[in-house]
Amino acid sequence: MSISFTIVDVFSKTQFKGNPLAIVDNTADSLSETQMKIISRQFNLSETTFFSPPTVPSATYRLRSFLPDGREVFGAGHNILGVWWWLATAGFLDLSKPNSADKSNGVEEFIFHQQLGDDVLPVKVMRIARDELSSGQTGSMDSPAEISISIRQISPDFYNFHPNPAELAQSFGLTAADIGLSHDVAQNNSSKPLRPQVVSTSTTRHLLVPISSVSALNRASVQRDKLLRQLSIVDNKAYGLYLFTPMPSSPDSRGKAIYQARFFSPGMSGEDPATGSAAGPLSAYLYRHGHLDITGSVGKLTIQQGISVGRECWIDVTLSVTTIGDSEVLNVDLSGGGVKVASGEIALPSIDLHF
Fold first, then answer.
1. DSSP assignment of 11-56, as one string?
2. How far is it, in rounded angstroms, from Cα 347 to Cα 179?
3. Beta strands 2-10 and 338-347: pairing type?
4. CA–CA gap between residue 81 and residue 100 (Å, rounded)
5. Among 16, 21, 40, 195, which residue's CB has the most CB atoms within a 10 Å radius?
6. Hey, how many other C-beta atoms are within 10 angstroms of the C-beta on 251?
7. Which InterPro entries match (predicted)?
8. pLDDT per residue over 71-105, tens digit each?
9. Residues of the chain with CATH 3.10.310.10
């Protein structure tokens, strides 16, 4: 017996770029957790996501994502956004009645809900008229470019700063001078220095590390054992290392801040091409420390990732700031699309197999 799967490159409209994601159709709800882990190990991608009927009535689908090592993760990044892009383009969603429509911009919006662990979170599917798309945004014949997905991450949590940035820098081949933004960027944005800190907008915590230049970012060389030690020093629940640096603005950046980033985790076999569960926290981190401009209570950020592994990805992040009483509430939304690259059937692992 077998079960259907699809491979999607997420955060790109070009096949064989983006962050590859294996998506498995478990709508029959027939797979055990062990079978899901074995299938994820077989694909050996950064994550494999299974979609199935929800166990709570308010959700449209339940999504479960696994790493090749069998660990289940609950972050809302490429593993979630890519599934919803596929559900929308492959006919698994009812797109007959939009929740809202902006005729002037040719955009229809549909709201669905996803079950991720114990959380039920909204998902926005945007269908954009082709004549409203900018040049170069055409997809393949069977993966229309007019579908874009926006997912809401949970409110950000801020954790420890790394106690020894110099040691941290040395662990991946850089120096203390390479940690932090360049003097010019820091002066233009804020007098507050940026220090490596663990931040999360999911159940997954990442260590965010500002790097002084693109050149330094490209020189970084991460080794698993050294990374494990540095993560344990700052937070024993920290999962990954996210290195980032600002890029020059371009005429078509539409007021968004643009950063280039790289992500490493001991649970992954190599460098991750795109990491939504780190891009979301980055927006909140930059805002908290005075490095993200807010216009009308909204800040926008674009992250380029995957360059060093030949998989250029673009992630759009919107940070909304509201005040309730004396408290400030931050909402993080991640946006992007994808492109289908493969589909087929994978054999069902025997129920007698152990992971």
1. T-SSTT-SEEEEEEE-TT----HHHHHHHHHHH-SS-EEEEE--SS
2. 47
3. antiparallel
4. 20
5. 21
6. 5
7. Phenazine_PhzF-like
8. 998 877 899 999 999 999 999 999 999 999 887 77
9. 2-151+339-347, 157-336
